[in-house]
Design brief:
The protein has 38 helices and 23 strands. By secondary structure, the protein is an alpha/beta fold. Helix 8 packs antiparallel against helix 9 and helix 8 crosses helix 10.
């Protein structure tokens, strides 16, 4: 009898999680109920499953609202009815037109109007919902004659008084007003909760017709959904048979391309995979992915196929991935196996500049009605909770900042804050708004609106209103179309090298850029700034500890750097065994045979499958169940328990001692949830090598490409420094030389106008477009005549040196600009055939400090270009030791002067610590460790240069300075304000540092890991 239930998917309205809603219905002895969330069908699939499990008949529909006003409720008679409502609402979303007061002509939908919005004439499928408190109105003839069209109407929005208050808070958040300003029209009625069924029926006992009508409606509605069959586009061709014929043909062509004509191992592997793909019906999925990649190649785009899809030799032969699964011993079962009920997906990366072109192709190729982005629910998080709820209670911004940025234990204890905390914590994990999945694309056989309402965000690609988990549950295999700046670095570098040097680099040829000798030297030394995935301080330190000088070691490093692997203790143990291969024993022969490449340590997810297979004797597919279950991706605890039992039974059959098997299972259990897919690591490693190859052989072009793709781990300043260290001459922006992005002429690097944050984007593009159309600017007068710019914009360009081609000083140019703009008439700004001669102003010679340019640059770019930060220090002292000498100072105290690049917060059992990254006077990088006791006395004080005192610790080739004391060193006062003492140190505050915070528990200590280094009893 409950035909209008809201879950928390009625965003900022409903307060009840889906499963809780059904549990309450069970407690109230409800036999049938309808989920009708506001303007969405997000929850109907989970709702249907849960209802079927507990014996409640699920009805599904939509509550249609416009501007928070209830228009009508639609109940689907069947799946076709859901599709009708989805299409109706989608059209209104796309066209941004308000919902009509009356429902359209639905064929498979029952419409329920609230009493306040009943149309003059009701259609056959339309009814009126009567609340218990409205029954008294039926004594009026106006309504009594319509009783044959009336239904029980008891909306459900909350469960308790506390949740009613929470509902009002949500409504205040949604309407962006404080709680006291809410009116009754803004929120639901106080009676909108679920009663035990007999109590609800008792309220209508005088109106048996209404009860009969309601039951009749319930009987008409039959929403049944097939969760087992795939909803993806079924075939790339016309049918399964022709799909497999095409896939097989392409696979064998690729086999010849990748392996030649006589590789029996590769052929056997391909045949095995094709059989599984055929059996599971994934041929169309492979072919659609191949088609997308084929289009990308035809455009000359660079893509990276990564993730577990790289475990497939068919993907390798189709050119989807560039990782040979035979070379790296990658298990196909990690990607696809007969036991795997959930679909796999390919992760494919493009440059962020080219991804939209790929997306447009997919939508055009497969039809706008059949393609959509997966949605995602953005939940209320800690900071947003306190900001949103605090605002509702009328707290000012500064108090909201304190609540949002600090732990609850440190909050004020007044009554308002307590209310904010109480209701705020109720919202944790509640959906707040819907958004677009960052990369997941659905391509369906039937129109997407058969399954979901769609929304059209400003980006211009439609979004389904369910997330990837629901998509997977109802039978969609998503296509992950990603973008990343690392590919942009590589792609733009190649184009820039050809333009600047006339050299074509075939970066797709991994033989050129994988395990290249000079690149390996840079890799082992951690000289990888700017290179995808291997430029962070932690990664550069790991590369040096491993003396990593080859591809396979890099693949391992790409996996063990992951936080979970480090937390499991495997990273430290791997570094030890790599450097001391004679100081440990494999504690079982299987570990030597199967994991010899990684010294008997389970570094990759695939290693879990290997050990389950070769030690435990389980099928590889069962090993994958073990991996997925332990990583939290397996939905069934029962499946995990079954595989665990089978593991021990199988081990016993193979004659393994119980104690040894228990230790191996303990290792699997402690590691499986943290590990990284080997194919993923290998894909990352290939991309890292491609970046490194370009950095080593074409460093200036590479660094310009990094700058133009807006960097990576570090701020722009660091990459500008790298370009300078690589031999480039760095120039500030110039109106005649600079583009919007940074430009390269030989070794001359002109920073782009985009780096002038105070210059409007439109103005920057106008300057460039006008120059390209009508030639270089001849003078300041010429520039002002052609560009509609005010004095503020002109000053920015003058101060950054953009008119230095005129040969006049900045002070002279400022005087000229003011003289020109005082009497300038905008209507005279045009290009004349005969330009008036440039006036020769008599300008005074004004003294100017050589350091003024540096401070102009700090103000406008946030870093100096004309001078190094060390040149601006008051002291001439440069430290007693340079970075290049640190390795020879193990256990010695050193004093160094350094410029702060970045620092990373790390939680430890002894309190907060930081790792710092610095450059010395010679421009080389080194790293520091700052423990809690040192930080208490000598904290970081923002960007700039510091005097450091500490002890050098050389850990496997990698020196770190453990800081005991540090002090920030003063820069010279700003010479531009020699007469204004209050501003002499103001611009110094704009010198930046990169700070990264870590929100995790401290890593365990070495003694807590317990990984044996000796052979265990057989």
């Amino acid at each position: 009898m409950y035909l209008n239930c809201h879950s928390f998917h009625s965003l900022r309205y409903g307060t009840i999680p889906l499963t809780d809603l059904v549990e309450q219905a069970v407690a109230c002895k409800v036999k049938a109920m309808a989920l009708t969330d506001i303007n969405t069908v997000t929850g109907i699939y989970d709702f249907t499953k849960v209802c079927n499990e507990v014996g409640i008949k699920p009805l599904v529909g939509i509550e249609f609202r416009a501007d928070n006003v209830l228009r009508y409720i639609g109940l689907a008679k069947n799946a076709v009815g859901v599709a009708e409502m989805n299409r109706f609402l989608t059209r209104h979303n796309f066209e941004e037109i308000p919902l009509p007061l009356s429902a359209p002509d639905f064929e498979n939908v029952i419409i329920i109007y609230p009493l306040e919005n009943v149309p003059a004439c009701l259609k056959d499928n339309e009814y009126i919902g009567i609340r218990p408190e409205e029954l008294s109105k039926l004594f009026h003839q106006q309504w009594k004659i319509l009783e044959h069209k009336m239904l029980v109407f008891q909306p459900v929005t909350f469960r308790t008084k506390r949740e009613f208050n929470l509902h009002k808070i949500l409504r205040a958040i949604d309407t962006n007003i404080i709680l006291s300003k809410l009116t009754e029209d803004d929120y639901c009625r106080q009676t909108d909760f679920m009663l035990p069924l007999e109590k609800l029926l008792a309220k209508y006992e005088q109106h048996p017709n209404i009860l009969a009508n309601t039951q009749n409606i319930i009987d008409q509605c039959h929403f049944e959904f097939d969760f087992k069959t795939s909803k993806n586009k079924k075939f790339y061709t016309n049918n399964h048979k022709s799909d497999m014929a095409l896939l097989t043909s392409l696979a064998y062509q690729g086999l010849h391309w990748r392996y030649g004509s006589n590789n029996a191992q590769a052929r056997a592997r391909a045949e095995k995979e094709l059989k599984v793909i055929d059996e599971l019906g994934f041929g169309g999925y492979f072919l659609i992915t191949w088609d997308i990649v084929r289009y990308s190649n035809s455009c000359g785009f660079l893509h990276i196929g990564r993730g577990s899809g790289a475990n497939s030799i068919i993907a390798y032969c189709l050119g989807i991935t560039d990782i040979c699964p035979i070379e790296l011993d990658l298990y196909f079962e990690r990607f696809l196996n007969v036991n795997r009920k959930t679909p796999p997906d390919f992760d494919i990366d493009w440059s962020w500049k080219e991804r939209d072109t790929i997306l447009k192709y997919i939508f055009n190729r497969y039809g706008a009605d059949h393609v959509a982005f997966c949605g995602t629910n953005v939940e209320f998080k800690y900071r947003s909770i306190f900001r949103e709820v605090g605002k509702v209670f009328g707290l000012p911004k500064d108090e909201l900042d304190v609540l949002a940025k600090n732990p609850m234990a440190t909050h004020d204890t007044n009554s308002v804050v307590k209310l904010v905390q109480e209701y705020g914590m109720l919202l944790e994990k509640y959906p707040n708004q819907r958004s677009m999945h960052s990369c997941g694309i659905l391509i369906s056989e039937e129109p997407i609106t058969n399954y979901s309402v769609l929304e059209m965000p400003p980006k211009g690609f439609p979004i389904a209103l369910f997330d990837m988990h629901i998509a997977e549950d109802i039978g969609f295999d998503k296509f992950d179309i990603l973008s990343q700046r690392g590919i942009g670095h590589i792609d733009d570098s190649v184009k820039l090298i050809e333009k600047n040097r006339g050299i074509k680099v075939d970066i797709r040829n991994t033989a050129l850029s994988k395990d290249e000798a000079t690149a390996n030297i840079f890799l082992a030394r951690g000289k990888t700034i700017g290179c995808f995935y291997i430029e962070s301080p932690a990664m550069r330190g790991l590369l040096r500890r491993l003396n990593c000088d080859n591809y396979k070691t890099l693949v391992a490093a790409s996996s063990i750097i992951r936080p979970g692997v480090a937390q499991s203790g495997m990273m430290k143990e791997y570094v030890f065994r790599h450097n001391h291969p004679d100081q440990f024993e494999y504690f079982h022969e299987v570990f030597k045979e199967q994991l010899g490449e990684t010294y008997g340590i389970m570094v990759y997810q695939e290693d879990v499958i290997k050990i389950a297979l070769h030690y435990g004797g389980l099928p590889a597919a069962d090993g994958d169940i073990l991996r997925r279950a332990m990583s939290g991706k397996g939905r069934s605890k029962a499946a995990l328990q079954k595989v665990k039992e089978d593991f021990f039974i199988s081990c016993a059959k193979k004659g393994h001692p119980q104690k040894l098997s228990e230790e191996i299972y303990r290792q699997i259990e402690s590691f499986a949830g943290y590990s990284f897919c080997k194919a993923h690591s290998a894909s990352y490693a290939v991309e890292s090598y491609q970046s490194l190859y370009l950095k080593v052989h074409y460093p200036v072009e590479f660094m310009v490409a990094v700058i133009n793709n807006q960097g990576g781990f570090y701020r722009t300043e660091v990459y500008v420094h790298e370009a300078k260290m690589s031999g480039a001459s760095i120039h500030t922006p110039c109106v005649n030389k600079s583009q919007y992005e940074t430009t390269l002429y030989g070794i001359d690097v002109y920073l782009g106008l985009m780096h002038l944050e105070r210059l409007e984007i439109q103005m920057a593009h106008l300057i460039i477009n006008e120059r390209e159309k009508n030639g270089a600017y001849k003078s300041l007068e010429d520039f002002i005549n052609r560009i509609p710019i005010g004095i503020e914009g002109i000053q920015i360009l003058i101060f950054i040196g953009a008119f230095r081609f005129t040969g006049k000083s900045k002070n002279q140019l400022l005087v000229m600009a003011r003289l020109l703009l005082v009497n300038f008439k905008p209507e005279n700004r045009n290009l004349m055939l005969l330009q008036e001669p440039v006036k020769d102003y008599k300008l005074p010679e004004l003294d100017r400090s050589v350091f003024e340019d540096a401070f102009d640059e700090i103000e406008l770019l946030s870093f100096p270009v004309s001078f190094s930060p060390f040149d601006l220090l008051q002291t001439k002292y440069r430290g007693t030791v340079m970075t290049k000498d640190l390795a020879s100072h193990h256990k010695k105290t050193v004093k160094m002067l350094a410029y702060l690049i970045s620092r990373k917060h790390v939680p430890t059992n002894r309190g907060t610590m930081y790792f710092g990254t610095w450059i010395d006077y010679e421009g080389e990088y080194f790293d520091t460790a700052h423990f809690a006791d040192s930080l208490e006395k000598y904290p970081f004080q923002g960007g700039g240069c510091y005097l450091l005192l500490g002890t050098v610790e050389v850990d496997y080739h990698f020196p770190t300075v453990t800081i005991s004391k540090m002090a920030k060193m003063p820069f010279i006062p700003d010479p531009r304000y020699s007469n204004a003492t209050d501003r002499q140190y103001k611009v110094h505050e704009q010198i930046r540092e990169d700070i990264s915070m870590t929100h995790r528990a401290p890593y365990p200590q070495e003694h807590e890991i317990g990984l044996p280094r000796h052979k265990m009893g057989q």
